[in-house]
């Protein structure tokens, strides 16, 4: 039995080997190269399982090759599954025994047909349901493997010998097929889920950054245009008629530029929309989009939104504000720290708090943060907080920060109900 346990562990680890490369596969999920790579990788894992089989009873050999084929078909489709099946069949023919090799061909073909049929439905399932369904996929693979074994023993007139070992062997196979299938799919789905959330967080951050850049450029350029127009008006009475004509031409160009900027900002305001959504739902979306980033930094994120009444807020604007503030809080919080998003209602006002246990902000820096300007020396990247303040003001809210160095920061948003 000691040898059996060692063989079981080896086969189990061989099946899980592709997980080391799965991040590359899911990052290039739709590319042909990734599916070819997956098919070859799982084909090699299946061959190693066949090379180091498990021994039961009087020299009866079995392995987990069909679990490898199952995974290859489910995650790589016909291309990946066909490569894995081809490698399994070629290796089996190389071992000799024409009858046994033909049975392997039959089992491989049956598994490809069955799993291609159920694959589409499996991939449509939710994250939790895929984990549950993976056990059923393992049972299907186990049933096909048993069918091949029974066929082999029947054709060789060894039914009596099979009966002697059938229960312990088939029971062991049943358990291991389910455990290995569920384990691989559980880890791979978690990796895919994490990658999806990470990509969503990056996309949200890019959209927010582009919006911030647009806001900043629009406000900066509008301010400069106003100053230029003011100087032109002052100069118009001091020059000749010809010079004034040139100044008027410049003034017209500035006015057209100002109109273009107004058109952009009005279009951006329309894009922001006026749709409202429940604050509790909105905060869940914010936390879900930033959770991968928090996990990467080793920072805990908690939500404490327990309002006596359901509150609806401007969806796009408030979500952008909260993403900006929570992201900044995560950046300021070291590993092992915590960021909390909470809310409460007081006297017809909605209060939203973003607390972190980060490095804090010195009082002189805090004064500067609350009095940001669009001076020529200001950087776009450094004025993200200014855009957040502007969005809060547009929603008729207020924005305040309290902080203590090395103890943390609390940002308070206050909106009328």
Keywords:
417 residues, alpha+beta, Arp2/3 complex 21 kDa subunit ARPC3, Heat Shock Protein 90, 3 domains, five-stranded mixed sheet, two-stranded antiparallel sheet, 9 strands, 12% strand, elongated
Question: What does this entry look like structurally?
Answer:
Helix 5 runs antiparallel to helix 6, helix 7 crosses helix 9 and helix 10 (about 315-330) runs antiparallel to helix 12 (about 385-395). The strands form 3 sheets. A 5-stranded mixed sheet has the order 4-6-7-9-8. A two-stranded antiparallel sheet has the order 1-2. It has 3 domains: about 1-200, Arp2/3 complex 21 kDa subunit ARPC3, CATH 1.10.1760; about 200-270; about 275-415, Histidine kinase-like ATPase, C-terminal domain (Heat Shock Protein 90, 2-Layer Sandwich), CATH 3.30.565.10. The chain has helices at about 1-15, 20-25, 30-50, 65-95, 100-125, 125-155, 160-235, 240-270, 280-295, 315-330, 365-370, 385-395; strands at about 55, 60, 275-280, 300-305, 310-315, 340-345, 350-355, 400-405, 410-415. By secondary structure, it is of the alpha+beta class. It is built from 12 helices and 9 strands. Helices cover about 70% and strands about 10% of the residues.
């Amino acid at each position: 039995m000691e040898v059996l346990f060692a063989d079981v562990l080896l086969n189990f680890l061989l099946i899980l080997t592709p997980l080391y490369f799965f991040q590359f596969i899911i990052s290039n999920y739709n590319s042909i190269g990734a599916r070819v790579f997956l098919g070859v990788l799982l084909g090699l894992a299946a061959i190693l399982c066949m090379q180091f089989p498990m021994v039961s009873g009087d020299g009866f050999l079995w392995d987990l090759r069909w679990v490898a084929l199952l995974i290859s078909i489910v995650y790589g489709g016909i291309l990946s599954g066909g490569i894995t099946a081809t490698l399994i069949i070629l290796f089996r023919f190389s071992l000799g025994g024409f009858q046994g090799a033909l049975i392997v061909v039959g089992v491989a073909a049956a598994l490809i047909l069955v799993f291609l049929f159920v694959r589409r439905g499996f991939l449509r399932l939710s994250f939790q349901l895929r984990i549950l369904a993976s056990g059923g996929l393992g049972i299907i693979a186990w049933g096909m493997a048993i069918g091949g074994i029974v066929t082999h023993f029947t054709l060789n007139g060894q039914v009596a010998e099979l009966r002697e070992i059938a229960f312990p062997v088939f029971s062991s196979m049943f358990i291991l097929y389910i455990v290995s299938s569920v384990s691989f799919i559980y880890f791979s789905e978690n990796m895919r889920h994490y990658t999806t959330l990470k990509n969503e967080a990056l996309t949200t951050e890019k959209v927010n950054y582009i919006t911030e850049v647009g806001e900043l450029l629009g406000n900066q350029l509008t301010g400069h245009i106003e100053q230029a127009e003011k100087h032109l008006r002052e100069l118009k009475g001091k020059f000749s008629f010809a010079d004034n004509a040139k100044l008027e031409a410049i003034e017209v160009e500035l006015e057209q530029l100002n109109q273009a900027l107004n058109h952009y900002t009005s279009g951006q305001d329309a894009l922001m929309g006026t749709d409202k959504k429940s604050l509790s739902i909105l905060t869940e979306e914010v936390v879900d989009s930033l959770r991968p980033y928090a996990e990467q930094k080793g920072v805990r994120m908690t939500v404490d939104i327990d309002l006596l009444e359901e509150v609806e807020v401007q969806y796009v604007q408030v979500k952008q504000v909260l993403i900006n503030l929570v992201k900044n809080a995560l950046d300021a919080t070291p590993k092992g720290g915590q960021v909390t998003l909470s809310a409460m209602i007081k006297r017809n006002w909605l209060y939203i708090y973003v607390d972190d246990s980060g490095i804090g902000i010195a009082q002189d820096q805090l004064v500067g943060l609350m009095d940001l300007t669009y001076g020529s020396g200001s950087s776009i990247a450094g004025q993200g907080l200014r855009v957040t303040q502007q969005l809060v003001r547009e929603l008729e809210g207020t924005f305040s920060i309290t902080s203590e160095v090395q103890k943390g920061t609390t940002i308070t948003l206050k909106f009328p109900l």
